[in-house]
Automatic annotation (TrEMBL):
<protein>
    <recommendedName>
        <fullName>Clr5 domain-containing protein</fullName>
    </recommendedName>
</protein>
<dbReference type="Pfam" id="PF14420">
    <property type="entry name" value="Clr5"/>
</dbReference>
<feature type="domain" description="Clr5">
    <location>
        <begin position="7"/>
        <end position="57"/>
    </location>
</feature>
<dbReference type="InterPro" id="IPR025676">
    <property type="entry name" value="Clr5_dom"/>
</dbReference>
Length: 181
């Protein structure tokens, strides 16, 4: 028989404990609530350890909510890392650059394309998207900043200079100046 304490029975109350904690209840109040409602006697330090284990804190939402919020800021609003961190801080979520980078890698949000074939593929996608948008008349007259934000909102994860280059090439193609490229 393994030595040590028997496992705690509080895992089944994870949602209630997490919600109470995030709503401002102290750990001692949560301990009292577990004792009063469920007749569970548990040390406050056990609850503190378990909250840390579950990734629950008052400043950060749960991992899934944080990932969704980062995806929204990244794709829909087209924000850069520092802007994402500031937007999260305005929502009361404190996160470091390294944590943001780790989460982005975990959920597949990569900022750089380094292989030549991937760069060429991305450039081709940009050119085609710009060509379609120019033909539809949606982006005529947009400057570099508006183009970048427009395509980021559309879900294209590309650099600002790729947008400008794609716009210039797309404009030449749509006006019939392909020979001058």
């Amino acid at each position: 028989m393994p030595a040590g304490r028997p496992p705690s029975q509080i895992d089944q109350y994870k949602q209630e404990i997490s919600t109470s904690f995030q709503n401002g209840q102290s750990i001692s109040n949560i301990t009292k609530m577990l004792s009063d409602e469920y007749q569970i006697t548990i040390h406050p330090e056990t609850i503190r350890r378990r909250l840390k284990q579950w990734g629950v804190s008052r400043t950060n939402p749960g991992p899934r909510e944080l990932e969704d919020k980062i995806k929204e800021l990244y794709f829909k609003q087209g924000l850069r890392d520092k802007e994402i961190i500031r937007a999260l801080e305005r929502d009361g979520i404190k996160i470091s650059q390294s944590t943001l980078t780790t989460i982005q890698l975990w959920i597949g949000l990569q900022r750089r394309v380094v292989k030549p074939e991937d760069i060429q593929h991305t450039d081709n996608i940009v050119r085609e998207a710009v060509r379609e948008q120019l033909n539809s008349g949606h982006i005529e007259g947009y400057g570099r900043g508006h183009l970048y934000r427009f395509f980021r909102i559309q879900g294209y994860n590309i650099a600002r200079n790729s947008i400008q280059m794609g716009f210039s090439v797309g404009k030449m193609i749509s006006t019939g100046d392909e020979m001058n490229m």
